[in-house]
Amino acid sequence: MPNVKSIFLTKLLIFLSISLQSIHCQADVIALEKADSLFNSRSYKEAMEIYDSNFQSGIYSPAMLLKMAFIAEGIGDNERATLYLSKYYDLDPNPQAISKIKSLTGQSTLVGYEVSDGQRFMIFLTEYQDYMVGVLAVFLVFSIVTSWVTGRKSDKTQTFWPTILLIILIFGANNFLNGPRTGLVTSSPTFIVSKPSAGGELVDMVEPGHRVRIKSSKDIWYEVEWKDKHAYIKKENVTRL
User: Fold this and answer.
1) Coiled coil where (predicted)?
2) β-sheet with 229-234: strand ranges across
């Protein structure tokens, strides 16, 4: 018979690690509320410092990205404003964001902003990732308590597959649930070529504002999807989203 106490302690450690992550998220929420308060009082520089710190840590929301774009445009940094709006478009694809990016970059048409139904579904899952992990964590706690109570009342062999499955789902949602890998063209002009070398055939020459879907990375090059074709672009000309 498995050692129920050992198994319980193992699950308890997993639960505590999830709890610590939740506490960290709560601290982020408090910081963002402070930044929002600073933004509303027009203390844009101080608000931007907090927003940017969270953005670099991968913590952001559509509303936060819009505020960052507003601040960046206000100080004349159109490149950063375009970056934030492009990231915002990943979370909330809408024509208004594209129109604003065209205005900031001086483009009449933009490539790379098409979003398929499958991509929209992945964006949805990514947006609600924290909620999904929270729900799974609740079920995990219920599974831990049930196993502990059952183990105390019965000497029968227990099944731990539901708990194991929940642990796998939580791990997968935390580490592998990511949206599409995209990049924003930020250099002028940017050459898109057929091979990852200076001798590659020129496929297109573009200005900042366009987006590419990143397939892989090789030395100083990204392999990208450009107009439904595979091509290559130098990393220095692209900012990852």
Assistant:
1) none
2) 202-206, 190-193, 229-234, 221-226, 211-218, 182-185, 238-240
